[in-house]
Amino acid sequence: MNKNSDSYKEQFEIFLRELPIPTFTWQIVNDDLILFNCNNAADQITEGGVKKLLGIKASVLYKDQKDILDDLTRCTREKTTFSREMSYTYQISGKEKYLYVTYGFISPNFVIVHTEDITERIEVEQQLMQRNIEMNILNQIVKLGNTAEDLNTFLGDILDSTISLMNFDGGGYYFLDPITNIANLMYHKGLPSSFIDKVKAARIEDKPYNRVFLENLPIFIENYSKISPKWNKEWGILSIASIPLISRGKTIGALNIASKKEHGFSSEEKELLITIGREVGTTLGRLQTDEVLLEAFNRVSFYKDLFIHDISNIINNIYMALEQSSGYIDEPKRLFKLKETHERMKNQVNRSKKLISNVRKLSQIEDSEIPLARMDLIDKINEVKIMIGTHYLEKDVIIQEELESKMVFIQANELLLEVFENILINAIKYNENDVVQILIRTSKLKEASNNFIKLEFIDNGTGIEDLRKDFIFQEGYKEYKMTKGMGFGLTLVKKIVHSYHGKIWVEDKVKGDYSKGCNFIILLPLDI
Q1: Residues 379, 495 contacting (CB under 8 angstroms)
Q2: What is the structure's pLDDT at 105?
């Protein structure tokens, strides 16, 4: 009987030793467990390291891995068998593996632990999950591109998805102005304000932007502290990716994402981000085309409605003048009235010519048919002063100047006079004072590393209410469209200023009291 028992024990030990599943035997001693034995598979998977641990207590070996110690204690206490998956780093080799671990109680005082390496299966599952996430994002780009009501919604949703996918902290979009060769940060989230202030405008010839915008290649920075420790410390950003947005073979912008943690971009992640950039660029190109067509349609409708409105007024005024003049022809004593109605009709004819001229100029601006050239801004101010003085002899008009420089050069064209003339005429026309006072002031300022000349046209006229300030430059606004005497004036002014890559807005001469007059402000880039 003893011989058979010894034989069974020997066979069991051989079976356990040769079992292809790594197996560890723990012996229960008092309130702890001691690593008692292990088989060849366990020795192999630990690269021989486990034998050095024989006799060590579980409380010592797993003092920093409470979950494993709890599993061994549970098996001891409940005298049961259970399994779970875990991520485990072997203490001797340092290799990290995904394991399927089974704990089993063996009477009277042993715990057997089987470990199955499932690393390959888990990695495949993770890759499949990642591919599904990636496909969902790419499908989302296509879906949003077809359903998004505007570009901001589309860009915001894609940026959120990309930041989430990469587990990054923030990001944004650069969009290229092909005329100035400046890329502007137009939409962003989760970025430090100090970082935004520093990089909100960038010249595409400068490094590293030239790689994205001129070479159409992505940038992947895994540790920004190695490139610029100073800015890394200030911004707290370690990893950056900048992906070109390509439409019709040209880079129109860039998708940027940033992380506060160091991130090593895998080849799969790089390829995914490049694909996202390509899809976003293609969709943006199509959305922009749709918006351009819609804008063109709205613009034509606006021009048509406003033209009909103004022409109708002109024709009505001429008709009324003709009606009145017919009554003066047979009354010699009232022939002087005939001269007055003739002047009224002449003014209306000139008004119609101006209207047609403005429509033509607006069309030229929209089609970019009028090229820009270097010109002296101060010369144009002096020229328009002479024009105004010639046409408004019936009013007492005083135009003063506060010019920072005698010569200021900008990129513009002959329509610049149209801008100044419109603003000055409005200042004279909408002024009930005996003396019309207008101050033209110039000063230089810097915005986002760009140099501008600031022009202020300050008058003492009737002013513009705050509500109307919001729409006087807007096309198609119904109240604006029906405002008497405005015509295409400020619409034309806005279009011209924007064609120079400038800005225009209006403020009160005296803050909080619009009735004291207006201050029309124009910013134009300097040509240094």
Answers
A1: no
A2: 94
